């Protein structure tokens, strides 16, 4: 697969021109509330070295969000915790999908994204009474696209913030040692949470989606950014309205509010999240940061190589 975006030198020089919408902080102020208590119910699995809990916690509008909470068997805490978000149209899957962090000594909360979980890994969380019910292109990107109050990611990002509150409330978790992580959509959600929750211990955003979204819609050749272009191909008069809405959910703007140490990764042959969009958020990130770059990879990014790098990064900051 050839390069389809900028070279590495050009990515390092690139700066996003994304415009922050007026009232961004006010728009997100309501998402920071903690919501009600989470429910953790231990479940029996075949995993002998790990304990697994089925989790429900109140997300946006107090609607229930599901997840798995996994800890090392016999751990009595306090443990550092990694809160993880799935990629686009994936869900929490099975407990056997959630082995990495607990095996390394962390508590691990892996949550659903509401209404997703039928593309590559199953999910169990409904999107109750979705607010954005106007005409849309198939997928999630244009659901509620004409009004940021009704857009799909307003609910999802609020859920992600509430997931951190849920993890911190568990008696095994040290609330001062909580990190957020994800790949693709999950990386974009991790950046959103980093911009909305001021006291995280670490952030990991691998090949993050939802960053520099207008550029993504103009440059991506595969993946969910194409939904935006598909919508605007029909609704030719709504270009500025669409990108004004999406500006409320853009990782470029969350990044400048984030202060926790962050590890990014980008892949130069990524046609789903073009590397320049990742660097657009990376250059805006206000806290300590570094980025791993995979010159000959697409949207799979570093895969296990990056998993190992992330574990080393977390170990330095969270001390499992």
Short overview:
With 320 residues, the chain is an alpha/beta fold.
Distance between the termini: 39 Å
Question: Spans with pLDDT under 50 lasting ≥5 residues?
Answer: none
What summary fits the major beta sheet? Answer: 9 strands, mixed
CATH architecture call: 3-Layer(aba) Sandwich
Query: What is the CATH superfamily classification?
Result: Alpha/Beta hydrolase fold, catalytic domain
Total of helices? 11
| Helix share, percent | 25-40%
Mean pLDDT: 95
Rounded radius of gyration (Å): 18 Å
Strand content: 15-25%
Overall spatial form: globular
H/E order of the elements?
Answer: HHEEEEHEHEHEHHHHEHEH
What class do helices, strands and sheet pairing give?
A: alpha/beta
Task: Write down the CATH topology.
Answer: Rossmann fold
Strand order of the largest sheet: 1-2-3-5-4-6-7-8-9
Number of domains: 1
CATH level 1 name: Alpha Beta
Number of strands: 9
InterPro entries: AB_hydrolase_fold, AXE1_dom, CE7
GO molecular function: carboxylic ester hydrolase activity
Organism: Dactylosporangium matsuzakiense
Protein name: Acetylxylan esterase
